From TrEMBL:
This is Fatty-acyl-CoA desaturase. It is found in: Membrane. The keyword ATP-binding does not apply. Belongs to the fatty acid desaturase type 1 family. The histidine box domains are involved in binding the catalytic metal ions. The keyword Membrane applies. The lineage of its organism: Eukaryota, Metazoa, Ecdysozoa, Arthropoda, Hexapoda.
Length: 314
């Protein structure tokens, strides 16, 4: 593992600017396809939960849980820590595995996800941030995906350099074949596998939609809850916070104040071996078997200095 020189030029949102942004009237242009989709999967997920409690076989429940974890890792270890922040490097087998896992999450193509998340970090909690938290909880949680992007986000998005991502054969393949690949990996296969042990298709299908919805919301609470409720021990001048509940559901992504201060730390947390940080454990395991390497982290003295300089005092 190698330490890196942390960039301390974090996006700062002063209190007066924050209040001005919150008070500013907002206009929304609805994106009807994602709106209808999100309504459908959430309703279907409720029925899936009912079937999971009353009807589903234990093998189906176990299978759904495994696919849930794998598709979540596609987000946390894949598009987030590997391809957006380049916190570590991965050999081709691991890259293919993470691309397939991310496809199973049905959270856009990897290149599109990285593009949006890069904007989020570069212009945190401004109108150029796709899920600007100053626009309210619902908007930064899921509303942003139901409306067309703010003109500022669209304009700034054109400046994001995606050439390295398109040069990656794994990501280029997924981008080129995203429609059928995501349909196959996220919906068809997980809905058919339980039929092997004689589960009904209705149960298998709705349990999978429950899984898709839970993965979606587990990733979205990093945009919403982890920008609103928690502590700011590393930088009190930014909105992202530390929230252990988010870390539990999002496999270690809730140490968000730390992550926005030190985005290139592969652990996304000072306590990288914390039991809540399953993604860090996964990356460490991949390193032990030779699939992950060049993990980047922040030295303890740099962390301590930042806490002393800008941290929230208890």
């Amino acid at each position: 593992m190698a330490p890196y020189a942390a960039n301390e030029d974090s996006m700062m949102v002063e209190e007066d600017d924050y209040n001005k942004l919150v008070a500013e009237p907002r206009k929304y242009e609805i994106a009807w396809v994602p709106l209808v989709y999100f309504m459908y999967v959430h309703i279907a997920a409720v029925y899936g939960l009912y079937l999971g409690i009353t009807t589903a076989m234990w093998k189906t429940i176990a299978f759904t849980f495994v696919v849930h974890v794998l598709s979540s890792l596609g987000i946390t270890a894949g598009v987030h820590r590997l391809w957006t922040h380049k916190t570590y490097k991965a050999k081709m087998p691991l890259q293919i595995f993470l691309m397939l896992c991310h496809s199973a999450s049905n959270t856009n193509s990897s290149i599109k996800w990285v593009s949006d998340h890069t904007l989020h970090h570069k212009y945190t909690d401004t109108d150029a941030d796709p899920h600007n938290s100053t626009r309210g909880f619902f908007y930064c949680h899921i509303g942003w995906a139901m409306v067309k992007k703010h003109p500022e986000a669209r304009a700034k998005g054109k400046s994001i350099d995606l050439s390295e991502l398109y040069a990656n054969p794994v990501l280029r393949f997924q981008q080129k074949n995203a429609l059928w690949l995501i349909l196959l990996v996220a919906f068809i296969i997980p809905s058919l596998v339980p039929l092997i042990w004689n589960e009904t298709f209705t149960v298998a299908y709705h349990m999978n939609l429950l899984r898709v919805t839970l993965v979606l919301n587990a990733s979205l609470i990093v945009n919403s809850i982890a920008h609103m409720w928690g502590t700011r021990p590393y930088d009190k001048t930014i909105l992202p916070v530390q929230n252990k509940i988010v870390s539990f559901f999002a496999l270690g992504e809730g140490f968000h104040n730390y992550h926005h201060v030190f985005p290139h730390d592969y652990r996304t947390a000072e306590l990288g071996d914390n039991f809540l940080n399953l993604t860090t454990k996964f990356i460490d395991f991949c390193a032990r078997i030779g699939q992950a390497y060049d993990r980047r982290y922040v030295p303890d003295d740099v962390i301590a200095a930042r806490i002393k300089r800008t941290g929230e005092k208890n």
